[in-house]
Design goal:
With 107 residues, the protein is mainly alpha-helical. It has one domain (2-92). It has helices at residues 2-18, 28-43, 48-74, 82-92. Helix 1 (2-18) packs antiparallel against helix 2 and helix 1 (2-18) runs parallel beside helix 3. It is elongated. The mean pLDDT is 82.
């Protein structure tokens, strides 16, 4: 029983760490579904397959979170638009992009 509870807490912890929205505005349905799944596993016959899949889910959530952290750290331009990326690249080498007069569209 304690290993199932530990797994449940690990899943919820990783969901909380990877969430973008503040805790107050998050959808509670996701955590309630996880709770229901784990409660059913405690009531029924606890299989090794369930525990293995739960550990795999924790590993996946942790890996996704770490991937985003590393992507933000080592590729800070990945979430910019094309124009913002060009300006940031130009600034990196000490140049500024020329100003486009208003009313004139880029070709």
């Amino acid at each position: 029983m304690s290993s199932t509870v530990r797994l449940y807490r690990s899943v919820i912890r990783e969901l909380n760490r990877s969430a973008i929205a503040p805790r107050a505005t998050r959808n509670k349905i996701i955590t309630s579904h996880f709770r229901k799944i784990f409660e059913e596993s405690l009531q029924g016959n606890r299989s090794e397959r369930f525990e293995t899949e739960a550990r795999d889910a924790v590993t996946f959530l942790r890996s996704q979170r770490m991937h985003k952290v590393l992507l933000d750290r080592y590729n800070p331009l990945h979430d910019l638009t094309a124009e913002e990326r060009i300006k940031a690249t130009a600034r990196r080498v000490g140049l500024d992009m020329p100003l486009t007069p208003q009313g004139e569209e880029e070709k």
